[in-house]
Amino acid sequence: MKVEKGKKKILSIIILVLIGIMLFFTRKDNQDKFVGFVQNIGISNREFKEVSTITTEEDVEDFTFYDKGIIVCGNKKLIKFKMDGSKEWERIFNVDDLGITFGESSIYVYDKATGDIYFLNSKGETIKRVHLKTKINNMVENFGNIIAHIEKSDMEGIIILDQEGEIVEEKMVERGNILTYSLAKDDQIYAISLLDLGGDELNSQVKIFKLDGELLFDIPITDEIIVHSQFIDEGKLLVTSDKGLYCIYDGEILWDKKFKSINHIYIDEEKINILHGDRLEFMSFDGNILNSRSLAERYNKVNPYNKGLILYGNEYIMGLKNNKEIFKYRGEGDILKVDHGRDKLIINYKDRIDIISK
Q1: DSSP assignment, residue 275?
Q2: 76 and 95 in contact (C-beta within 8 Å)?
Q3: What's the pTM?
Q4: Which residues contact 291 (CB under 8 A, 6 or more apart)?
Q5: CB 3.0–4.6 Å: which of 63, 115, 256, 274 could bond 72 by disulfide?
Q6: Closest to 346 (Cα-Cα) out of 60, 54, 59, 122
Q7: What's the number of CA atoms in the CB half-sphere (13 Å) around residue 28?
Q8: Which candidate, 2, 6, 65, 18, places its Cα nearest to that of 306?
């Protein structure tokens, strides 16, 4: 009798657990996670093969796939490797505080203290040198132009340069710390976002200027920190803060969407790809959700990949096309950054860079 009672008790527990599982997976999000969990049981990397490995002697500050090779920067060095892992060329810069920005047609190496900028080609040769004679905090390439975030006389500002290194615009701001900067595709307007620490509240501001320096609009965003800004279609500015998204046009906020946290966004020609929490959402430029996907693993970045998307976190890399998974790879270590070249994945770990292909 005791054996029978024990069996009934175990059966009752099993039934309760099954009921709990069924209730849990009635939610769509949880169904998606369960499918992802099942798919990852016994996940194998056998469909990928290692092409080569680059052992890194120093910490890699950044790297990119560039002109059929891999350019790595770190410890005042710029090194280009071939896809087989062999070294193509190396340049050492005798600069205390070195900055490097990878552009579409040039590599920009700059001395942050003096404002000297070197335009390099894919062979590592200097093709142009520009002297700004001021401190540079950062540089980005935007629609073929270069924006340098500068400091001068205890003030911050930006200098916009064309591809020839000629100064197109210089704008200093009297109050606030610069957070982001972006240039419109038509080269007629640009935006600067600022953090104002003068008051009791944490306030951000978005300022939009004509290329001649005239202030067109000033849009306050209270109690939020702006982390990214980018012009999208027809002069609309998309602003990402630590709490949400804003679409600004003609001095007004057209729409805004709140998020608990945004890991990363990537804007393509048709939509906004938003990676937040355990979800990837696809949003139109009008602020409408087009589609979404629940993620079984944690991902930190979303970037373009072969007319689709690539997501990566500390452990997994996933490729998507039309919101369908085309591959998933589990890293062999803590993943720091992922890039790709043609049909190959380039994975940066702490002590090496692996190049793999399917």
Answers
A1: E
A2: yes
A3: 0.84
A4: 281, 282, 323
A5: 63
A6: 54
A7: 4
A8: 65
DSSP 173-238: ESSSEEEEEEE-TTSSEEEEEEEE-SSSS-EEEEEEEETTS-EEEEEEEET--EEEEEE-GGG-EE
Contact (CB, 8 A) for 248 and 254: yes
For 156-215, the pLDDT digits (tens) are 999 999 999 999 999 999 888 999 999 998 879 999 999 987 767 788 999 999 999 999
Tokens representing 331 are 């890293």
Question: 49 Cβ partners below 8 Å, 6+ apart?
Answer: 356, 357, 358
Taking 3-state DSSP, the helix, strand and coil percentages for the chain, each rounded to the nearest 5, stand at 10, 55, 35
pLDDT band at 13 (very low <50, low <70, confident <90, very high): low
Q: Which amino acid is at 152?
A: K
Q: Are 82 and 88 in contact (CB under 8 A)?
A: yes
CB distance 122 to 67 below 8 Å: yes
Summary count for the chain: helices (H), strands (E): 2, 32
